[in-house]
Amino acid sequence: MTMFEHDNPAHTASWPQVLARYAPRIRPTDVESLGNRGGFSGAAIWRVKTEQGDFALRCWPVASLPRERILGLHRFLEHLHRDKLDFVAAPIGAGDGNTLITEGGYDWQLEPWKPGIADFRNDPSALRLTAAMQALARWHLSAERHVPAASAAPWFQRSTAETSPAVIERVAIIQQIQEPILQRMATAITNATPTTVRDQSLRILKLVRQGLTPIQGELLAERDIKVRLQPCLRDVWHDHLLFTGDVVTGLIDPSACRKENVACDLSRLIGSLVGDDRNRWSQALADYQRHRDLSVSELKLIEVLDHSGVLLSGWTWLQWIYVEQRSFPDLTAVGQRLSSILRRTECLIEGGHESSILIVP
Question: What is the pTM of this model?
Fold first, then answer.
């Protein structure tokens, strides 16, 4: 099994035709392939340099999302852009006005390139954490005002009282992880070529086995709790938050966006930024609530989703590597991601609740 992925020939053959659809308004002076360095979503990214500025050309993975959902996302991002969220990139229309282009059997979009670097861990100052929480709160407040088209309502319609979809989905995932599946995963990892990633994977699997029952209990307790739903990012984490100095200049890769409770975004982003530091969790939530209030139910949900997210992120990576045998362009980045997951899972499972994030008094 290889974890390295080279440029897809179909991508390489098609992107010039895609960019031609934006002429003469946009004329590239240089195009740089970034592979899927935009994240682990599987999308291919190019940086397109023009006299008007830089753009990001994105090729959606095959069989990714329904076309109606992608177009609904585009309209939603345009709403955020009109609402003056300058750290959000909204896809632009080609010559015929379409924001989603089909070429070479793939769907494509072009959007302004957002400046900045995802370097919070290199400079995790209180000022930067405040900026991150303010940006997320502004995003949520604007998203709450969005009125989707009827075709996009299943994904982007807000509601006042529903169970968090993340809770329902995570209960279903845990119920599927039975002992035979755990045994098959152990065999697959053991039979893999010895690497640091394999050692990390075996440790993660052991912790997942220990944590399934208590985490399932936490999630089941949330199934009868009704919360507000609205468009949320659902996969906002450290590497999707771009800084220029202490200012957030990019909140990128909204491909997972759909209706959810804001607790999902808060648990994901704060956990990726500050890990298990209780004081910094408190600061982050206080910063966020200066702009948008959180209910007691939402505060509790943040904690439950953080716990289950930590446990299931490790399981997801094991599935990607040893079952789906996905390819990744950077094995070092995979190892770093697993190390981060392992640290948080050890704190959650072996530290017990006294080491968890105590969000609710």
Answer: 0.91
Which residue do the tokens 């045998």 mark?
Answer: 325
Q: What topology does CATH give the domain 120-355?
A: Aminoglycoside 3'-phosphotransferase; Chain: A, domain 2 (3.90.1200)
User: Which sign, positive or negative, has the C-alpha torsion 310, 315, 316, 321?
Assistant: positive
- CA–CA dist 66, 104 (Å, integer): 17
Side-by-side strand order, sheet with 44-50: 28-33, 44-50, 53-59, 106-112, 101-103
pLDDT-derived band of residue 332, with 50, 70 and 90 as boundaries?
confident
Q: Output the CATH code of domain 22-112.
A: 3.30.200.20
* Residue pair 225/301 in contact by the 8 Å Cβ criterion: yes
Cα 94 to Cα 85, 107, 108, 244, 309: the distances in Å are 22, 13, 11, 29, 38
- Asked if residue 131 lies in contact with residue 246, where contact means CB atoms within 8 angstroms, the answer is yes
Cβ contact 124:274 at 8 Å: yes
pLDDT tens, position by position, 218-264: 999 999 999 999 999 999 999 999 999 999 999 999 999 999 999 99
For residue 230, give the nearest of 263, 183, 273, 208 by alpha carbon.
Answer: 263
The sheet with strand 227-232 has its strands ordered as 159-162, 227-232, 258-260
Exposure string (b/e) for 194-226, b if CB count within 10 Å is 16 or more?
eeebbebbeebbebbbebbeebbebbeebeebe
